[in-house]
Structure formats: C-alpha cells, structure tokens
Amino acid sequence: xxxxxxxxxxxxxxxxxxxxxxxxxxxxxxxxxxxxxxxxxxxxxxxxxxxxxxxxxxxxxxxxxxxxx
Length: 69
Known about the structure:
- The chain is α+β, with helices and mostly antiparallel strands.
- The protein has one domain (about 1-69).
- About 45% of the residues lie in helices and about 25% in strands.
- The chain has 1 helix and 3 strands; from the N terminus they run E-E-E-H.
- It has a 3-stranded antiparallel sheet, covered by helices on one side.
C-alpha cells in the first residue's frame, strides 16, 4: 500500500491510496483511490480491493467446478 499527495501545496482532492494485492495463481489486483481525506481513500480502496478479490476467487472456483465436470 502506498500513499501520496498529488497536488502538493495547491490543495484540493489530493490524497491517493494505491493498493496492490498479489494472488497465488491469479492476476494481481491494483486499486487506486483519490480523496481529500486520506482515511476515506484508504477505506474505499480496501473495500474495492476486498470486493474485487472475492469476485476473482469466486470466478476461479466456478471455472474449476466447470472443468471438474
């Protein structure tokens, strides 16, 4: 997880949370969220990453079930 300030001293919506999740046997998940509040950016990025990882795992399970038939 990386955090950065995009606009620097100019202000505005400028805090970024960059999250990269590596999954064994699956493609990586990369999420970036930009918000004025760093904690909001972190929460949103984690929520999005969780949903994306769950979806990828479910798709993989579904694929393996079809192949096993």
